[in-house]
Design goal:
Length: 348
């Protein structure tokens, strides 16, 4: 059975909705920065994200896996790079540049994710993925044409944020002992508390309560629901492929900046969007197949029983029904087209 073919459309939909929710948060955050400092705002956004996933984060944990050193290391990396450093760097950059420009610079997150996945996490990058990276970089070059040299500091801050989120994306895709909701909850609570505390210690301004409520709501959608949906997609099709889909987020942000905040529409932005669409299409039409071996493993994630990897018994459960619980895998050797998801992390 081919789990990749079953899951790709669903994973693509999850990642695109996640991109929409996150993308529109960029111009909104730009408005909130009028009343709050970057550290305080980052804390509020991630606390909002934690509150959004709290109701669905209380089941599915593997007590043995959550204590494993590898799981703790991956979760710590996601929290530090993705929850603390990434959003703070982004908001400092956003404070110094237009929302539309920052939205476009966020495309660098996809490149960072792909290169880090290949260099550090053994994720396979075939010709189609490399071609998609090339198209993405070409789109980035087109987008840089109207670049203002006076925004160099903002561009460097956003680039550093993208590298942090690239590390976060790869760490998160490898987490096996926590459900996506639990990962998002921990990231939101720890990162939110740390950034709020740092904001107070550095003399940051705490905003009025209507701004606090608005930031928590945006965080619930952009850093809670969005992250949860993205993690689910990443665990099905891998960090690089899910990140290519999520790379549409800057364009959702750009459209919001054009329509809501009346920023100018640049021809280069339209051209770059077209090039990016070609890269995403190239990515989604590719997979690779070969004989490969699965070692014995134990983890927890959403799965179905008709994908060729999950054959444990559930009396009365339909084969295609998705569910989440800790489960074990026996050693297995087989061949089928696949992506670098939780079950396929080999190089090739």
């Amino acid at each position: 059975m081919n789990g990749h073919r079953h899951d790709t459309p669903r994973a693509a939909a999850l990642c695109l909705v996640a991109a929409l929710l996150f993308g529109v948060s960029t111009p909104l955050a730009k408005e909130f920065l009028r009343s709050a400092d970057p550290l305080t705002l980052a804390g509020l956004l991630y606390l909002g994200g934690a509150l959004a996933v709290l109701p669905v984060s209380l089941r599915g944990t593997s007590r043995a896996l959550v204590r494993a050193p590898r799981e703790i290391l991956m979760l710590a990396g996601a929290v530090v790079f993705g929850g603390i450093l990434g959003p703070v760097l982004l908001l400092f950059g956003l404070r110094a540049a237009a929302a539309g420009s920052v939205s476009l610079w966020l495309n660098l997150e996809t490149v960072a994710t792909a290169l880090l996945a290949a260099a550090l996490f053994r994720e396979h990058l075939g010709r189609r993925v490399l071609g998609a990276i090339a198209l993405l970089l070409a789109g980035g070059l087109v987008l840089a044409l109207p670049f203002d040299a006076g925004s160099t500091r903002a561009a460097l801050l956003v680039t550093a944020a993208c590298v942090c989120w690239g590390l976060d994306n790869n760490c998160t895709a490898l987490i096996a002992g926590y459900t996506p909701a639990q990962t998002t909850l921990i990231k939101g609570l720890v990162a939110g508390a740390c950034n709020l505390t740092l904001g107070r210690l550095t003399g940051g301004t705490f905003p009025e309560w209507p701004i606090v409520g608005g930031a928590l709501l945006v965080g619930a959608l952009a850093y809670g629901a969005s992250i949860l949906l993205y993690i689910q997609g990443a665990q099905m099709i891998g960090a690089t492929r899910s990140q290519f889909l999520f790379s549409t987020a800057p364009y959702f942000g750009l459209i919001a900046a054009w329509t809501v905040f009346r920023e100018s529409v640049l021809p280069a932005q339209v051209v770059a969007a077209t090039v990016m669409a070609g890269g995403i299409a190239l990515l989604l039409t590719g997979s690779h197949a070969h004989d490969h071996e699965h070692e014995a493993a134990e983890h927890t994630h959403e799965h179905r029983h008709d994908d060729g990897h999950h054959d444990h018994a559930h009396p009365g459960l339909a084969p295609g029904a998705r569910h989440t619980h800790p489960h074990e895998h026996a050693p297995l050797v087989h061949a089928h087209p696949h992506a670098p998801d939780l079950h396929h992390r080999h190089g090739h």
